[in-house]
């Protein structure tokens, strides 16, 4: 390496400003800007939702089992419930037992088992009184009535699931901070819960600015482009775990933007804009929102140097965070991954909202601007030996949407590094959840 020597889920009141320590030349580092954002956000109050609505959400408090698991002694095999002593020596000399009944899953046993007797039993069925073991049907002649010949011994407890051996009623089954997955849902349901207290998903409203933007699928006029950023940011917010909606592209006047913002703060827990944050004559986001509580800064990163973040006043003084991202598609996406995704995950109660980094070996070299953290797009694969291999995409410009779509990782090149060579190891942020 070559080095250089240079809403729902928001606060209850609107902060006057969000500030962070500034680096040289009044430029924030990536870490400073992210820390300023995360420190200003707190998760929403918990909500009780059905298990069907809980998938992917963070559990708000410890959950205890309402019942024992299993709730009763039951058989783990199809076979015969017996007294262990009845089958002593059966492996050497088969033993015949009298069949006195049958019990299936869901039944309540109506017979008891004495010495020399057996009850035909199905998997999951309650153990009848007197029985202390099960002999598998494979070790018998499989008789259904009369008597059954047993060709194996059955030690006490064989093929018996004991009440509470998995979970005891009153014990904690899910911890606060756990993320609900399919297996969590199974445990909650089995332990007697139809609902669970969780941190709710924030609702994100996505806005793109620019008179040149046309909705996807519509014909283009001179100088017009399709609005790809809105769809991209909607998808990214949804994948991050939020709910999201797109509001039609806003024009290039302060009045148009402020009118839309006034409307969406009533329904949004977070607002994400793209475009209008640089130094152009028509950068409406910056001109309209600077006086509304949004702080516009330069961040030492590439792509995505111009950034905006702050809080808008929602109904009842509710603070609604707004993230103002650059308009170039790659810059907008990288900014979302670095700043907005962690913020949304924080709002959802995740203890570690930032994606982890992995170490990957470069297949070709990369250059970087001194003093700025480079977030290069790459395709990362796993080699035969398990090593991650990173191939930078060909187009590293902030407008290369096709190469962005191919990438599944961001390669992190430190601010004091201007060049990394093929074969060197770099940090990689994997993007595929």
Automatic annotation (TrEMBL):
Cofactor(s) listed in the protein's UniProt record: Mg(2+)
Gene Ontology cellular component annotations, sorted alphabetically: cytosol
Pfam annotation, one family: MoCF_biosynth
GO terms, biological process: Mo-molybdopterin cofactor biosynthetic process
Pathway connected to this protein: Cofactor biosynthesis; molybdopterin biosynthesis
Record keywords: Magnesium, Metal-binding, Molybdenum, Molybdenum cofactor biosynthesis, Transferase
Uppermost EC category: transferase
SUPFAM superfamilies: MoeA C-terminal domain-like, MoeA N-terminal region -like, Molybdenum cofactor biosynthesis proteins
Name listed for the protein in its UniProt record: Molybdopterin molybdenumtransferase
């Amino acid at each position: 390496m070559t080095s250089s020597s240079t809403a729902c889920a928001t606060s209850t009141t609107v902060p006057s400003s969000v500030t962070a320590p500034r680096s040289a030349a009044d430029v924030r580092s990536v870490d400073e800007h992210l820390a300023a954002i995360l420190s200003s956000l707190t998760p929403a109050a918990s909500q009780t939702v059905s298990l069907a609505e809980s998938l992917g959400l963070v559990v708000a408090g410890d959950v205890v089992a309402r019942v024992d698991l299993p709730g009763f002694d039951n058989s783990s095999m199809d076979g015969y419930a017996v007294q262990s002593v009845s089958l002593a020596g059966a492996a050497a000399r088969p033993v015949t037992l009298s069949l006195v009944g049958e019990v299936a899953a869901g039944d309540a046993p109506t017979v008891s088992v004495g010495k020399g007797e057996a009850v035909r039993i199905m998997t999951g069925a309650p153990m009848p009184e007197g029985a202390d073991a099960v002999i598998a049907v494979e070790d018998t002649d499989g008789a259904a009535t009369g008597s059954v010949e047993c060709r194996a011994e059955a030690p006490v407890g064989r093929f018996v699931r004991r009440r509470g051996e998995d979970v005891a009623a009153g014990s904690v089954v899910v911890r606060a901070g756990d993320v609900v997955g399919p297996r969590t849902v199974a445990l909650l349901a089995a332990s007697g819960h139809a609902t669970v207290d969780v941190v709710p998903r924030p609702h994100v409203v996505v806005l793109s600015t620019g008179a040149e933007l046309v909705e996807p699928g519509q014909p283009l006029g001179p100088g017009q482009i399709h609005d790809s950023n809105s769809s991209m940011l909607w998808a990214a917010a949804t994948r991050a775990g939020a709910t999201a909606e797109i509001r039609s592209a806003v024009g290039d006047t302060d009045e148009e933007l402020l009118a839309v913002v006034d409307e969406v703060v009533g329904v949004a827990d977070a607002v994400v804009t793209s475009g209008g944050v640089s130094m152009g004559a028509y950068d409406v986001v910056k001109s309209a929102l600077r006086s509304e509580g949004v702080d516009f800064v330069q961040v030492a990163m590439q792509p995505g140097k111009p950034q905006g973040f702050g809080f808008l006043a929602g109904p009842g003084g509710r603070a609604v965070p707004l993230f103002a991202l650059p308009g170039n598609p790659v810059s907008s996406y990288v900014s979302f991954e670095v700043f907005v995704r962690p913020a949304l995950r924080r709002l959802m109660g995740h203890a570690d909202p930032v994606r982890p980094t992995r170490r990957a070996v470069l297949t070709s070299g990369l250059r970087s601007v001194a003093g700025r953290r480079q977030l290069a797009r790459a395709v990362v694969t796993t080699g035969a030996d398990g090593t991650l291999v990173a191939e930078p995409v060909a187009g590293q410009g902030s407008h290369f949407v096709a190469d962005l779509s191919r990438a599944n990782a961001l390669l992190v090149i430190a601010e004091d590094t201007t060049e990394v060579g093929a074969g060197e190891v770099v940090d990689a942020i994997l993007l595929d959840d």
